[in-house]
Amino acid sequence: MLKILTEPPVWKAVLGFDFDDTLVMKDGPSQVDERFFECLKWVRSTYGAAWGIATGRSLYQLIEGLNEAGFPFLPDFVIVREREIFFPGQFGRWVPDENWNKKCEKDHNRLFRKCKRVLAKIRDHVEGNTNARWVSVEGDAAGIVSSTEEEMDGILRIIESLTLHSDLTFERNSIYLRFSHRAYRKGTCLQEAANRWGLECDKILAIGDNYNDLSMLQPEICEACGCPSNAIREVRDYVTERGGKVAANPGSLGVMEVMKHYFDQ
Questions:
Q1: To the nearest 10°, the Cα dihedral for 9, 12, 18, 21?
Q2: pTM of the complete model
């Protein structure tokens, strides 16, 4: 069982990291570099920085990933499925942010009922004109897995040509896409977690590598942002434009580089 680190008396900052291809490399070693954990522990204890993971994975998939990657301790919070917030509890249990998660589920159900027709139109296109798969499972009513990134680019051109409900958006990571409510994204979740400790955007550092991380790299969410060297071009360009830190290293070493850029060590 992964241990929970002792909390400082007062949290003074919040760190939000993506998981896949930001901390754990898809095409690299499954283990995260030990130097990253030492750096993270130092920043956490010295600066009172709560750290969390924001991922498209489900809670179960994330826990599995933490174990596979050799994490020696738990995050102070996690954002899963890009919209639900959990905190570590006793005996290895995860405690949901009940108000946020229940409202999130309710608002998604209501939105997908309103958008039933346009989502059906998108599904018909995906199933009739592409090699992609339409995904509809419990907790994720509408998603797409394409066969290639180029195919996903083409599907997105069709989606963006349609008139969508103002609250309907999507989160993309490579060949994966999930439709969701605009009010519940990595960025708004990171903001909500920080609000729990009375912290605003000037105390938040966010680090990610793909399209679905852009919502938490926005200036209204975090004052400080960064990405590892393996981030997609759109993320590297955005971080550069914002004056953030684009690391020279990939994965967890890149995240460590960004932390050292913002925190004296």
A1: -90
A2: 0.94
What is the rounded distance in angstroms from the CA atom of residue 88 to the CA atom of residue 83? 17
Residue found under tokens 């105390």? 203
Q: How far apart are CA 151 and CA 125, in angstroms?
A: 12
Question: With contact defined as beta carbons under 8 Å apart, do 122 and 89 qualify?
Answer: no
Give the torsion sign (CA, 184, 10, 45, 261): positive
Phi, psi of 124, rounded to the nearest 5 degrees: -60, -40
The phi-psi region of residue 163 (left if phi > 0; otherwise alpha if psi is between -120 and 50; otherwise beta) is beta
pLDDT tens readout for residues 22-41: 999 987 766 799 999 999 99
What is the per-residue pLDDT across 142-183, written as a single tens digit (0 to 9) for each? 999 999 999 999 999 999 999 899 999 999 999 999 999 999
Is the alpha carbon torsion for 39, 45, 46, 50 positive or negative?
positive
Distance of alpha carbon 247 from alpha carbon 96, whole angstroms: 33
